[in-house]
Design brief:
By secondary structure, the protein is mostly beta strands. The chain contains 2 helices and 12 strands, in the order E-E-E-H-E-E-E-E-E-E-E-E-E-H. The protein has one domain.
């Protein structure tokens, strides 16, 4: 069995108050960075972000990986989240509910998100299992609510992981996401997983019954 790997996405702010989310999976530079409203946002939304009135939420956020193509994550109210490239090419969508499902541009299901059977909501984090359509669990995802949430799930990985040190709480809805990847992921699965992290932590979209 492949040793679990951690992918952390930590929330911070740009000078214009937009939320950012840097993803790291080991020492060195982030593997990619997401930015709130990194898509084509109107002037009203940009002003709301600048003055701190829009603290995450619906909008078109942009994830730029260190390698590969950028991804736009359109977090929408009461509608599926839409994933596209910068030129508008469809990538897929995520259909949220008590069980959420991510599909590619052809409608083929890629991943599902369900509440952790041991409890989907704690003070520290919302806890989800990420599965393939056949039910195989590929990852455990924590949407971190408090500083203590960064330590959840570390019993299944090396407790000395260098980037697992807790930081100070920020005045934002969530501190980020921590994902323990249990098996190697395809490129499509990895991209869908990262998109879901951005959609939850910056887009504030609920992915399970416990999050509603």
């Amino acid at each position: 069995m492949t040793a679990p790997q951690v992918l952390e996405g930590r929330i911070a702010r740009k000078l214009n108050n937009a939320l950012t989310m840097a993803f790291v999976d080991g020492p060195g530079e982030p593997i990619g960075v997401a930015v709130q409203g990194g898509g084509a946002e109107g002037m009203g939304k940009k002003v709301a972000v600048l003055f701190g009135f829009k603290n995450g939420g619906a909008g078109t956020h942009r994830y730029a990986p260190r390698l590969g193509q950028a991804l736009r994550i359109e977090s929408r109210e009461q509608e599926p989240t839409v994933l596209t490239r910068d030129d508008g090419t469809p990538v897929g969508s995520i259909h949220r509910g008590d069980v959420s499902s991510g599909v590619d541009a052809t409608g083929r299901e890629i991943l599902r998100w369900i509440d952790d059977p041991g409890g989907g909501k704690t003070l520290e984090a919302f806890r989800l299992h990420v599965q393939r359509p056949d039910g195989q669990q590929v990852a455990q995802l924590h949407l971190v609510r408090t500083v203590a949430g960064w330590s959840l799930g570390r019993d299944i990985v090396d407790a000395t992981i260098w980037w697992g040190h807790a930081g100070r709480p920020l005045p934002i809805p969530f501190l980020g996401t921590s994902v323990q990847r249990l098996v190697p992921l395809t490129l499509d699965e990895h991209e869908m997983l990262v998109a879901s992290c951005v959609d939850m932590a910056i887009g504030l979209r609920p992915y399970s019954a416990a999050m509603r």
